[in-house]
């Protein structure tokens, strides 16, 4: 699928089981700026994208894992592709905040098409997040 040359922000709404804890995780741990909010939802600037945490405790939790490159990758998951510097800073920040990694920060597919730095962890409601970085962004869709 092709698109215009400018990457447009995505919008994603996810369930959380506690709005105060969502504020703590996305605001304090990840450092996202809070936008509009109401009693049951909060908009976040998620690295330039619009992430909305909606209070829906019955919808939270981990669903499944698939094997990828020797790791059990949580499904579903979401995240963003960062610069290598920002990725390293986030890995350090998350570790310093005591968040347990599901998959520790490492380089996946080393020396192969699509080589990437990646890490996985859960938010406080059990939503799986993956953050990636590429030395060469042209490898994003390499096969």
Automatic annotation (TrEMBL):
It comes from the Bacteria. Residues 8-134 form the VOC domain. Transmembrane segments: none annotated. Pfam families: Glyoxalase (PF00903). This is Glyoxalase. It comes from Pseudidiomarina halophila. The lineage of its organism: Bacteria, Pseudomonadati, Pseudomonadota, Gammaproteobacteria, Alteromonadales.
């Amino acid at each position: 699928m092709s698109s215009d040359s400018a990457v447009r922000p995505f919008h994603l709404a996810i369930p959380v089981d506690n709005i105060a804890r969502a504020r703590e995780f996305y605001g304090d741990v990840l450092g996202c700026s809070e936008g509009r909010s109401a009693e049951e939802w909060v908009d976040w600037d998620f690295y330039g994208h619009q992430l909305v945490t909606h209070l829906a405790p019955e919808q939270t939790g981990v669903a499944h894992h698939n094997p990828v490159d020797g790791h059990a990758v949580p499904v579903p998951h979401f995240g963003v592709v960062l610069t290598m510097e920002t990725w390293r800073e986030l890995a350090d920040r998350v570790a310093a905040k005591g968040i347990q990694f599901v998959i520790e920060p490492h380089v996946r597919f080393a020396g192969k098409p699509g080589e990437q730095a990646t890490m996985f962890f859960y938010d406080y409601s059990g939503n799986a997040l993956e953050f990636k970085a590429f030395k060469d962004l042209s490898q994003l869709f390499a096969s």
